[in-house]
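Researcher: Let's do a round of design. I'm pasting the structure tokens now; please hold your answer until I've finished.
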């Protein structure tokens, strides 16, 4: 076999996804006493290797592709599932796919699926609902740059009586952000919105009325 053909075969092998290579890569981030779980320390090193901050939204999209169950952890099964799907078995390959992962957020259906996934991914598994600090952090990550009323809603949550957000409220917040005008003119008080969002609308209207009075 000629050198060029041997070289070409090695290049092809390097480009093709290799499950064994992917698993060896996974082991770089796990501890000897728990080789099947990549934990917080391993996650930090993984993020450093691929050049992404742990709190970057692309990490949420990657976790979604793996269908990871718990924030800060990847199991061996989740890692292989997600990276087999992405055909990534090295740092350079996952780096080349980061733009693809970010682009999923631009598709409404994918974004909705990622948003819904984020609720169960981020909440404490011992609780049915998501604690408010976690909810605010996840809402900032997912809606902070895209929802014109996000800052108002965040301020509302800070002064509200709510300590947790349930899944129905979580899903309706996204729907509200997509459908309700910034001036609230198309908000139907008789609609099937959760009480939390009715209260937000009342609070925002009252604040706007007060601001208008103060300015006159």
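Researcher: That's everything. Go ahead.
Model: Designed sequence:
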């Amino acid at each position: 076999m000629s050198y060029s053909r041997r070289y070409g075969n090695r290049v092809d092998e390097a480009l093709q996804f290799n499950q064994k290579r992917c698993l060896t890569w996974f082991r770089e981030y796990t501890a000897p006493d728990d080789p099947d779980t990549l934990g917080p320390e391993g996650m930090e090193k993984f993020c450093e290797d691929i050049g992404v901050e742990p709190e970057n939204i692309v990490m949420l999209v990657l976790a979604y592709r793996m269908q990871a169950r718990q924030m800060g952890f990847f199991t061996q099964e989740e890692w292989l599932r997600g990276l087999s799907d992405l055909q990534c078995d090295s740092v350079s390959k996952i780096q080349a796919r980061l733009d693809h992962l970010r682009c999923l957020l631009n598709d409404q259906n994918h974004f909705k699926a990622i948003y819904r996934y984020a609720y169960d991914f981020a909440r404490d598994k011992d609780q049915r609902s998501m604690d408010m600090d976690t909810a605010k952090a996840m809402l900032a990550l997912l809606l902070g740059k895209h929802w014109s009323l996000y800052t108002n809603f965040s301020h509302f949550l800070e002064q509200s009586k709510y300590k947790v957000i349930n899944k129905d409220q979580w899903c309706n917040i996204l729907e509200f952000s997509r459908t309700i005008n910034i001036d609230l003119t198309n908000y139907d008080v008789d609609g099937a919105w959760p009480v939390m969002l009715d209260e937000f609308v009342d609070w925002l209207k009252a604040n706007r009325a007060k601001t208008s009075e103060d300015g006159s």
